[in-house]
């Protein structure tokens, strides 16, 4: 992703600091290496940041603590500029002057990512209110392209929370064959974060049963996004955090995956075994 400088989140509960107000520009700053704990700000084109940062954080411990609360949102891939936007605030590049993100970048990121944030019960924080950032004609960070809309290929929809289907059980092998035509097989597991809090990184392995309505074109990343955004649904599917396998049945509309049914994959199920044997001869309608 290429960005230009145009010329003249915190997700924490109760966090009200404002980028434009929190930092005293007269305060002495220093250049420090971006710590390994700030994974979202690695490989962004620079390796050193200014401290205090544009969020007013004066210690590296505070920077790490506040920035890691955004890791989950970054993993949802809700907007391609989210990492750049957040890192320009939490880990600003070491230049002679501070470069804020442009208001238009903030608005684009907010419009795409606020729905995903709301899925976890959080609103877009006041500390990142976009009217606090400079307009594009001022000195600020902006993408070289002026198309600020975050679009999946062929899509104008922003991924949002979906109603969680109940996990169903198969009754007959014919039913298994019917859903196979619109199914992906997902092995779901969770891993605690380095902070050992109640956040979990959702990892999945995706196997395509067939090229039905869920074509493998970018479907794996779309499923990963669905899992991360619809985290409450995943809690219902996998409350014990043990690795489990599911069949997700659905279709893609306007570039967004819609999961309509969920089945648990149980290898010892006789009807499932019979269906997999017949699958090679089955033709989807």
From TrEMBL:
SMART domains according to UniProt: FRI
A molecular function (GO) term: Wnt-protein binding
Gene Ontology cellular component list: extracellular space
Pfam families: Fz
Disulphide linkage map: 41-87, 106-130
PROSITE patterns assigned to the protein according to its UniProt record, in alphabetical order: FZ
FZ domain location: 26-143
CDD domains linked to this entry: NTR_Sfrp1_like
A GO biological-process term: cell differentiation
InterPro entries in the cross-refs: Frizzled/SFRP (IPR015526), Frizzled_dom (IPR020067), Frizzled_dom_sf (IPR036790)
Keywords assigned: Developmental protein, Disulfide bond
Protein name as catalogued: FZ domain-containing protein
Native organism: Taeniopygia guttata
């Amino acid at each position: 992703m290429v960005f230009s400088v145009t010329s003249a989140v915190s997700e924490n509960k109760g966090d009200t600091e404002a980028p434009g107000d929190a930092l005293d520009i007269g305060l002495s700053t220093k250049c420090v290496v971006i710590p390994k704990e700030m994974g979202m700000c690695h490989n962004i084109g620079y390796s050193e940041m200014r401290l205090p940062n544009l969020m007013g954080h004066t210690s590296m411990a505070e920077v790490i603590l506040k920035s890691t609360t955004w890791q989950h949102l970054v993993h949802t891939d809700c907007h391609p500029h989210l990492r750049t936007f957040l890192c320009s605030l939490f880990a600003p590049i070491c230049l002679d002057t501070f470069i804020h993100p442009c208001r238009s970048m903030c608005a684009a990121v907010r419009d795409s990512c606020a729905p995903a944030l709301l899925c976890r019960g959080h609103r877009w924080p006041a500390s990142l209110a976009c009217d606090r950032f400079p307009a594009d004609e001022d000195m600020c960070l902006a993408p070289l392209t002026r198309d600020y809309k975050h679009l999946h290929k062929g899509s104008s929809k922003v991924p949002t929370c979906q109603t969680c289907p109940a996990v169903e059980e198969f009754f007959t092998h014919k039913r298994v064959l019917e859903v196979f035509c619109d199914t992906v097989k997902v092995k779901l597991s969770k891993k605690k974060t380095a902070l050992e809090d109640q956040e979990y990184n959702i990892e999945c392995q995706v196997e395509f049963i067939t090229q039905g309505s869920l074509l493998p074109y970018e479907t794996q990343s779309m499923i990963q996004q669905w899992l991360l955004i619809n985290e409450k649904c995943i809690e219902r599917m996998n409350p014990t955090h043990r690795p489990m396998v599911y069949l997700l049945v659905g279709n893609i509309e306007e570039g967004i995956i819609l999961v309509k049914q969920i089945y648990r994959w149980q290898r010892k199920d006789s009807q499932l075994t019979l269906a997999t044997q017949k699958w090679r001869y089955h033709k989807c309608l």
